[in-house]
Amino acid sequence: MPIKLLLLALCLLFNTAFSQTNIEEKVNNLNDIINPITTVNPEDNFDDIYFLKTSLKNATVIGIGESTHGTAVYNTYRQRLIRFLVQEMDYKAIIDEGDILAAEIIDAYINNQTDSLELIGNIQPVVTNKKELDWLRAYNKNKPENERVHIYGMEVRGFYSIINRIKDYHQFTPADNVVLKKFTSNVGVGYKNLAKADFENIKSIAEKLSADCNDPRCKTYLPLLNQQIDFAYRQRFGRGGFNVRDGYMFKNTKAIVANSYQNKAIVLAHNGHVQKTKFGKMRSLGYLLNNFYKDKYFVIATDFGAGGVTVFDERSKDYQSKYFDAVKDSKAVEYYFQQCKYPNFILDIADARSNPKTKFLVAERTKMLRNMGAMGTVIDWPIRLADNYDMIVFFRNTDMK
User: Fold this and answer.
1) Is the pLDDT of residue 209 over 80?
2) Are 76 and 121 found together in one domain?
3) Is residue 213 located within the same domain as residue 91?
4) What is the pLDDT of residues 241-258, one digit of tens each?
5) Of 247, 280, 308, which residue constitutes the final position of a domain?
């Protein structure tokens, strides 16, 4: 018996040592192909990312994703990438996973048409970093229109903004205003205090608007109201809200790209929205963009190992800080990334896929355990990185000084 126990212990020890050696070998192979991030400061030169000019030369629509909407270092580094794309690659359109009406105010600000950044209905898109907006404002100053950068939203969020915008040019009847008031007030998460009759009433109002849609503004904003009615109804009474939402974001994004300088644009959204395959069984924005633009669509995802993230707490209805320890699951990509020699780096998926020693990490299904929703819920569906992203920007720890 003691001999059997000894042999078992030796076997376990051998397997552990072999496994550790195998992990170290995989990490060392990654070390050979990753590109170190030497600075996250948008003000610094572009020496460490200048290779992107070659990587992105055939792209026209660049998706910059984030694994969470509450990671400060992502916001800082995104500014750096945007400045590079604007200054070095002549991108003029920034399309944000945010409210179209709020983005109009931000665009007016960066184009020196207003000094106010008060956002409609307190709805804030992703691009609300004042320092970066001031940089874009200074960049645009004294430039002719065709050389200016513009910021766009890709969806309507809620009824408040879009209804009030339509009221700017259309006089509703008192009866219509009674209906609209219910939609512009606090309708709650999922529009739970709205009945089917309420939606029938607002659809009727939209139909009347359509019959008298002569104002150019009507042709812009009425379709957006109809999008919001459709999405809200499905959220309240049906299924498929994700498909509907991303379908409309795709439709709006495609229209913006078609009217942008050289049909080029930067698309800012969650990793799950910009990824190239379906999000589970759902048709993501990125899935639709990839099918339409094909090899002109390029995706840069972001990821991290450990650190603090701001998430929305459903109970308190407020934002809170949540800390995530280093990933310990060897089936997750972050497990290997956080052991690499550079704390922060960029992985070119094409380089990893073409290397037999690193292909396993991007060609096989793996978890990304720092992909999470607004409430901090981890999305642990395994995905093939090579099918979804062209590059991954990784930060070992989000709590960077």
Assistant:
1) yes
2) yes
3) no
4) 889 999 999 999 999 999
5) 247
Within a domain: 23: no
Residue 29's pLDDT band, with cuts at 50, 70 and 90, is: very high
Calculate the average pLDDT of the chain. 89
- pTM for this prediction: 0.91
Does residue 56 sit in the same domain as residue 182? no
Domains: count for the chain: 2
Model confidence pLDDT, tens digit, residues 111-141: 999 998 876 554 555 566 888 999 999 999 9
pLDDT tens column, 133-169: 999 999 999 999 999 999 999 999 899 889 999 999 8
Which residue segment(s) compose the domain that 220 sits in? 160-247
How long a stretch of residues is the chain? 401
pLDDT category at 6 given cuts 50, 70, 90 is low
